[in-house]
Amino acid sequence: MRRAPLLTLLLTLGISTAEARVRLGELLPQHPWTAAAQEVVVVYSHDCGDLGDLWSAVLAAGLPVRAVNAEDYPSPAPAGVQAWTGEAATTFARQLRVGAYPTVLLVQDGRIMNAWEGTFSGRLE
């Protein structure tokens, strides 16, 4: 698997017209995983449609990926990624003020550095 540069991932995700309500610089709400120095958090729900291209782009960035399956309807994450589900996952999404699913967050030292919301239609090349 070819790793995409992180900047390419951010630029590709950044072309969305959706406006994130997630606040940059804020700490992530309480979560069940051990934080990494830099990580990607994908918050999604069952009604996002096919997220195959998004998952491929996120996984290719080479950072730890945290999947948060909100809204109480289980939806799988890619092989090797354990999705956090249930009421606590939905509470996490709401505390972030997620405006649309999926939402992708770049997190550094527990703080949100970049956020993207909406439908992924970009390609990493």
Could you explain the architecture of this structure?
- The chain has a single domain, classed as Glutaredoxin, CATH 3.40.30.
- The mean pLDDT is about 80.
- It has a 5-stranded mixed β-sheet, with helices on one face.
- It is built from 3 helices and 5 strands.
- α2 links the parallel β1 and β2 (about 65-70).
- With about 120 residues, it is α/β, with parallel strands linked by helices.
The whole-number mean of residue pLDDT values reads 81
Name the poorly predicted regions.
none
Instruction: Write out the CATH superfamily name.
Output: Glutaredoxin
Head-to-tail CA distance between termini: 13 Å
**How many helices in DSSP terms?**
3
Structural class: alpha/beta
Proportion in β-strands: 15-25%
Major sheet details? 5 strands, mixed
Cα radius of gyration in angstroms: 13 Å
Signal peptide: 1-20
Keywords: Signal
Protein name: Penicillin-binding protein
